[in-house]
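seq as requested:
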Amino acid sequence: MSLLAFERPQDSIGKSRGSIVTEMLMELNTDVTGDFITEDLVTLIHNKPEIFETFTLVIATSLTLKYVSP
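struct tokens:
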């Protein structure tokens, strides 16, 4: 069961899921800011792990425990 369900607008076709979801989440709460990254997550974990220090919440999909466990 999904916690949030969004109907993707027609103009979102061809855009990244991250950009669309970020835009829609910020519309739900105008006091919140958001950003998205389309770079490969595994590459970021290995080459730029400090990038995650700038976020209070990271939403990622399709990861194995190998990449999310300390």
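The CA atoms of residues 42 and 66 lie 10 Å apart.
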